[in-house]
Amino acid sequence: MPQPKVKLVVTGDDFGYCERRNQGIVDCFKAGGISNVSLLVNAVSAEHAADLAKRNHIPIGLHANLSEGLPVSQDLRGSTLLNKEGFFHGKMGFREVLQCGQLKMSEVEAELRAQVNRFCELVGQVPYHMDGHQHVHVLPEVREVFAQVLSDFGITYTRVPIEPGLKFGTFLPSHLRVFNAQVEKDALESIEVFHRYGIRWPDIYLGLSTMGKNMSVPNLKCALGFTLEASLEDAVNSPLIQCNDAATDSYRPVTAELMVHPGYPSQPHQGGCGEGPDDFSQSADRLHELNTLRDPFVLNYYRQRGIHLCAFKDF
Fold it and tell me: Across-strand partners of 205?
């Protein structure tokens, strides 16, 4: 078998959100469209998801959640992480409270540790990798706590959401371009922290430009094209590279992660993390991603271009 040019982890995020999303993610895995999942342990169908992962031998990591729904820790009453109703502050609300200096990092740490422990209870092992729901793990201050928790639990891999070619994604609406630019800025500033704690991540990240209706065969090919063009020399010179033997191993394939959100859309009042399902999960975009990822044209493209789907545990 020829050496692959790219080892690609295709991660289905939000596993556990509801049973319909769970089943869609499993169907996508069985069809060869994804190779890895990231579990929301505070979601209402997390136990259902963990059982499906075990039965279908799906590689699984933790999608740490500090922004949506209810906390896992039982010791956060009156916490700065929570609003008056006892829920997390939300995607932008979390960022606003953090920016105002009102979040206690000791409470962030307590919740992250509680979520890792809950993952171990559900899955029976430490996660192979750990990333952040809505990219909270690369935010200032949070990233230091996040890295410490990963180091303490021996979790080797995370996600650094810096996407090559994202600046060419002019088809994205302006509010998404602004949000994605801030995510990339935060991610760049996280690199030194993750290095310091010995945490690793794939050479290339993809997914910000191919979410929802923006996921298409041409857009996936375009995004993956940047990965295929990335020679090992490019990777070594990239600020993202962290593999100690990269400079000497001239035959090492480029590693990449594609973040995706497939599934059968949530029904109203079914699913979520304690507040019910959001518009994102109820959107037809979830089924669109599912169908695109398992499209025979996409799967054939992987084979033709030497892209081998794998999981973090295969690195």
Answer: 257
